Amino acid sequence: MVDPANTKLDRMLLDQISPAVMVLRTPLVEDSCRRNDLSLIEMLAPYSTFNNIDVPVRTASDQPYRLRKFKLRLFYNSDIRQRSAEAAKERLKQVITHAGDKNISELCSRQAEIESVITTAAQELVPSWFQNFNKELIDAAAFSEHEAFDHPVACLVAVSSKDKDPIGKFVDLFNTTQLPHLLNDGSMDPKILKYYLLVHDNQEGMLEKATGILAEMRRTFGASDCRLLCINSSVNGTEEYQQNSWASHKNSASNEKQFGCFLNKDDIEELRNTMHDFSSKHIIPHMELKIRVLNQQVSATRKGFRNQIKNLWWRKGKDDVPENPSAPMYTFNSTESQIRVLGDYAFMLRDYELALSNYRLISTDYKLDKALKHYAGVQEMMGLAYFMLDQSRKDAEYCMENAFTTYAKIGSSCGRNVTRCGIWWAEMLKARDQYKDAAGVYFRISGEEPLNSAVMLEQAAYCFLMSTPAMLRKYGFHLVLSGDLYRKCDQIKHAVRTYRGALSVFKGTAWSHIRDHVHFHIGKWYAILGMFDEGIKHVLEVLACGHQAKLTQELFLREFFQIIQETGKTFEVLRLQLPVINFPSIEVVFEDHRTYASPAAANVEESLWQALEEEMTPSVAGLKSNWLELQSKILPKKYKESNVCIAGEAIKVAVSFRNPLQIPISVSNVSLICKHSTECDKSEPASNGSLDEEKNDKGLRTVAVTGETSADASLFDLSEVNISMQGGETVLVQLTVTPKVEGTLKLVGVRWKLSGSVIGICNFQSDVVRKKVAKGKIKRKKSLKDNLEFLVIKSVPRLEGTIHSLPQTVYTGDLRCLTMELRNPSKTPVKNLKMKISHPRFLDIADQEVMNLEFPTFLKKQTISSRSCTTLDASKTAKTVFLFPKDIASSWQTPVKWPLWFRAAASGSISLYITIYYETEDVSSIIKYRTLRIHYNVEVLPSLEVSYRISPSPSRLHEFLVRMDATNKTSSENFQVHQLSCVGDQWELALLQPIGSDLSLGFLMAGQSLSCFFRLKNCKTRGSTEDKMSSLAKGIADVRLVDSESSGLFDTSVSPFDLFHHHERLHQERHGQGDDGNTVDFILIAESQDDSDTGPPRTTPEILSHYACHCRIGSSSPVWWSMDGPRSVRHDFSSGFCEINLNMTVYNSLEDAVSVRINTLDSLPRSNSITNTASVSGYEHGWHDTSHLTDAKVTPDSMGGRVGKALSPESVSPFIWSGTCSTRFNLEPLSSAEVPLQISVFCQGTFDLSNYSLQWNLLSGDRGDDGNESRVRSGSCHGRPYHITVLQKNKAEI
């Protein structure tokens, strides 16, 4: 707990509740004092305060105590009255205005951060002029009739030795007509102590005269009450003092001004002794005697149980008459006034216990008399006494709360007392570290007067800041309230100061609206004060206020331009936020050895290009390295951290500007800021204007009225862009700088002009340019991509390339012939051209002879015979880098044209990357080679969805049934299916049904589907006499699907069909499955039908090719077979059973020899029987229902089990297999064999001969592949359905 005697409240009470002395003087006394620019009271004031007077005091008790601190308050007789409201308001305004003018330099100082503000001591943080302001508020409530501590204790009468009849002057000065009103109306006791002071001016007369007057005074008024004071003893009036003791007592004085120039050391010592003797030998003894006398009277009349009962009875009989404000309710000689005087005198002599006891005694009387003002005053003094005694905190706060509410209840007449009580109460709470409660008290006394309220709200704000923990939001909010009231009272400087303090709280927070409010008004008020630089700085902070309403944005922008207009200057503003620059999206695109055909190519990740160019670019010392490492080994040491650019080639910078406002803005003259220097230039680099952020804290620079600065046009060229941005619009601006001469070039930033008034500047930093660094990798040293410095080298050749007629949107399978054109604008030729394409499945290189042919006509078979047939070269497809002919780029006059094949292989968004490598013939250049990077995006839409199902033919060996399903997946496009082709000479493909005039299945409208059936035959077999000639002939692998003889077939064995077939086989290849002869590849060719009436007609038909590779042609069994024999037989069963001869052909499709075993069963298993035998009479037996077989789909699993109704146990098999029940034989690789079979039929009917099985095994030791454990070496197959009908012969046939 802090000692109350060492608190700020104790010092305030010493200044405000101390003995008052009324001063009476003649005009000549004042004239003598004015020689020192001081009045009499101002000259005596510094010596009226005693920090260690050390005087023994004995009041009511017999035990004396020593008084350490003491002060006398001196007042002229005319000042002993309450100030008028106007005078009090003017005094307060002077204090505040003087404080604002005194601290004007602080408005330009750097704003402290909130963290440092919190740690600042209270005496440094709180403005010192608060003490003077609070003193003026307390003085405004002085000299009230209900309080005695403002009543004069003594009267100091001063007469000059030059006055005529000095003795008479002493008598005349204390005339009742010159005394204060309170002494004449009975509120104060007019019989007060008088002290007579004769003032002698050593500049005017001899001391002997003054000595004689003093002797006469002592004879008249008494020797102890008279004193001679000699002043102005300095000869020339040039006395100077290091400590200006009188400056603090001048209301508007400057600390640097010297006072007391005619007072020497003897005079000052005389002043000090005079006031000390006056206090210790007259004032204090007089107050002691007064206290003892009054205490005896009070003890005799009011203390004791009997006197208290008597007083209570007497007061209850009084009329309940409220206090009359126009006349004193209690005169100075009343018991209540005497007790109040006793308490106040004891308080001023620091006998707080005696004072508290008398305040308690009189408090009840005032309450019963309903003297509310007197009661509130006593409660106020009781609270102060409790605090100084360091007793009950609760009682002290209760008394202050009671006094405060009572004053407030009385009304406006006690407004000053409310303020004084609140100030003392708040200081009491602050002394006990109850800052939050003190802030609440300050808020309560911020009444209707705006200026008083402003100061009180500011003091409340500092209380919130010094609370534990600090209440920052309340601190900032109350500062804003205070600043707003300061502005209403035209105290602009104080308004700026408080708003700056609030800004430290709201800076860097999400409270955007109040932060904008603070910034805007600070800037506006700075402009009123003529501090335009500071005003612009703050208004700039609110320009990008996209979260504000549209009207607010217009207000901010209008005020900003108005401030700029008032200055009459043009400013360059660093970090101007209108428009807003999206720093992460800034891209710098330059060309060194890498060149780009389009901006889209420059936006591709560098790692993708490096991977594509890895096989083309040379390496250093036989080691593969990227271009950055290669460049660092070639460039001079001082330029290793710089990028390389070419003189005459533009450096492009993409800057994204965003208008954060809802209102349109105009941005003009957008350009880059660059610095250029040559190697021979040792002076400052040439620049087109920039702001150094480190050297300019304000971020402002005044330029010429036009605001235009430019660099030497001979060094580099800059582009300028003018844009008009709507509300919320984002515009990507492409800026360029083109260096003209060799040297170094640095990109410093970007500049623009906002609405023709303000030049905005943004300096580039290394972190504002987008870094293309792989994620997860630690970047150990500075990358060249992050450096905005460029080494400008001399011009080298640069190729320009484009692909003509490449569509942006196509359908799947679209096949086109495109032309790539390369140009060399430079006169220096290039050599060693190479090209690599990222996706050869979509884009591949054609032969140069295609340039002179008509596409797609030359791809048809009747035209191919007239030209050389180009087939797929295996060595060509294995190479990923295409080498142009050596002499193709030797000339720069004519462009290079080369054909390319394009095919939309899959749907989706496809990115095609092409890189072209070439070398320069200039050996002196730093860059030995360059690459041209080309990038295109193609949107591929679904067209036809094609699927195939292949199953072995049930009747013929080496033949298969193919079902093709095609669906048009487009919404508006129509397609004509042209042809289906099998890849390879061993295949023969034909339609199951020949094309007729009524066949229209090949035309597919949007959303339609198509199904076609084909017969597929493998012509490449051996070992079979039946197909012996087929192995020597070519199969017909193309089937025309349109009924038009004029529409020729496309030759799918030549480029580009075979080229893209190769890529599709690699793409669709199944893992772990080789081409063992059991798969086939199909190519479906279709044409797009242009039925739309809109748009220009197509000059050439659009060809679509769809590839299906690795389609399996059979089951997993390597053994194929077919059953041959009669399908219908007539027999006379009366002569016996019928024997039928059959023939089975078995084929081995493997490259290894196998062993085959055929097992026959005499009866159908119950699980394989088709149906029960019909109950018929006579010989009609064995009829079976086979209707479900006609509906069966032909699939590879058609030879699986068929489930039907089981035969009854008592039924007898209608036929049996004759001969052996098992046959075994061996088959050589890719060979066939015929096995004879026979059945015996006992009744007529239709029979299914599928009750047999084939088992096969690989012969061991063949091909030396016994180590392949994953290979299937044996298997078993069920018999395939084969139906034969046996009928009874007619009698006529027999």
From TrEMBL:
SUPFAM superfamilies with a match to the protein in the record:
TPR-like
Query: What residue range is the signal peptide?
Result: none
- Which Pfam families does this entry report, sorted A to Z? Ig_TPPC8_1st, Ig_TPPC8_C, TRAPPC-Trs85
Q: Which Gene3D superfamilies does the entry mention?
A: Tetratricopeptide repeat domain
Q: Where is this region: Disordered?
A: 680-699
- All copies of the TPPC8 first Ig-like domain together span 605-816
Which InterPro entries does its entry note? Answer: Ig_TPPC8_1st, Ig_TPPC8_C, TPR-like_helical_dom_sf, TRAPP_III_complex_Trs85
For this protein, the parts annotated as crossing the membrane are none
Domain (TPPC8 C-terminal Ig-like): give its ranges.
1122-1253
Name it: Trafficking protein particle complex subunit 8-like
Organism whose genome encodes this protein:
Salvia divinorum
